[in-house]
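To: structure desk
From: M.T.
Subject: fold request, one chain
Message: Could you run this one when you get a chance? Sequence is below, nothing fancy, just the single chain.
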Amino acid sequence: VQLQESGGGSVQAGGSLTLSCAASGFTFSNHDMSWVRQAPGKDQEWVSNIDSRGYTYYTESVKGRFTISRDNAKMTVYLQMNNLSPEDTGMYYCVTDATVPGGPRRGQGTQVTVSS
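Reply: Done. C-alpha cells follow.
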C-alpha cells in the first residue's frame, strides 16, 4: 500500500489549492479515504472523509470551503480547498481506512502554507 500526496504550496489568504493523493497496492474503490492535517505544534486534525460509495464528510471549520472527491479509475482522492485562511496552514496527509491490507496507512504529506 502506497499513498503519494501532491499539490501543496504557499498561497495568500483567500486563495485556492487542490491536493491530490495517488494510491496503489490495494483495491482503492472498496475503501474509505480521508484527509487529515497537522499544524506546527498542534495535534493531527481530521479534515474530511469520502466513503467507498462517495458520501462525503467534513470537519466544521472547512464546510463550504473544501470539497473532497475521488476518481476510482485513477485511484486518486482529491481535496479542493477554496477561500483558504492562515488557520488552514499545515501538513496535509491522505489516510486509508483501517481495512486495507496491513492496517491504516498515511502518506508522507504535502505542505500547505497560507499567509495573511
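Reply (cont.): The chain is about 0% helix and 50% strand. Let me know if you need anything else for the meeting.
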